[in-house]
Amino acid sequence: MPRPKGDHEARRREVSEAVWQVMATRGFAGLTLRAVAAELGATTGLLTHYFPTKRALVAYALDLLEQRTIARPRRPAGKGLIALRHALMDILPLTPEATESNRIWVSSWDAALSDGDLRADYARKYAQSRDELRERVAAAQELGELPAGDPVPIATGSQSFALGLAVQALLDPATFTPQRQVELLDDYLAALTASHSSATHP
Q1: Which of 112, 180, 126, 125 is nearest to 158 (CA)?
Q2: Residue 41, Ramachandran bin (φ over 0: left; ψ between -120 and 50: alpha; else beta)
Q3: Can you state the angle between helices 81-91 and 178-200, rounded to 10 degrees?
Q4: pTM for the full model?
Q5: Which residues contact 96 (CB under 8 A, 6 or more apart)?
């Protein structure tokens, strides 16, 4: 007799939580059917119903990570430069939840680099993020807060800065505390606006 749909959805939620816990505690390197089964208190045979291969498990884990990242509370967008600042702050590991998500993202890079399809998917995700930053840069340019011109280089540099800072904060949280991360971000943005001011006011 087939399981009721409600039971199936409840089991999927339980599996999702187990996958998430394994990623949070062991990273992607420790993401195996055996580890998820142990977290779930089930057999690996039950999990093959959901993930017939390791790649299926990894793909599902990446989708789950993206869903959780998207669902994470965001700062109000605002307008102009403040909107760019808020978007970059949302990238940084400034809270325990954001730190956990960043740890999992970084640990997943190895899987993406070793798989052409996953690598292309990651490139698409980061390109989409740059497009969103580009829109905020362009808005700040229209308000006269940033130098006029092509917004792409500023968006690309801003994304690269935030991602690099996030990695350093994960590796050395004692040095790169949340407060220090925000200070460095504000210094970075101040340098952008300073170059704009010097260009417009010789």
Answers
A1: 126
A2: left
A3: 150
A4: 0.81
A5: none
pLDDT tens digit string along 14-71?
Answer: 888 888 889 888 888 888 899 999 999 998 888 888 888 888 888 888 888 788 777 7
Spell out a b/e string for 133-142, using b for 16 or more CB atoms within 10 Å of the CB, else e.
Answer: bbebbbbbbe
pLDDT tens-digit profile of 118-155?
899 889 989 999 999 999 999 999 999 999 999 999 99
Torsion of CA 156, 159, 163, 165, to 10 degrees: 100
Spell out where 12-166 has E strands: none
Which pLDDT tens digit goes with each residue over 70-125? 777 677 777 899 999 999 999 999 999 899 889 988 988 888 888 888 899 889 98
For 200, other C-beta atoms within 10 Å of its C-beta total 10
The DSSP secondary-structure symbol of 29 reads G
Structural domains in the chain, CATH included, are: 5-67 (1.10.10.60), 74-200 (1.10.357.10)
Q: Give the closest residue to 181 by CA, choosing from 76, 73, 85.
A: 85
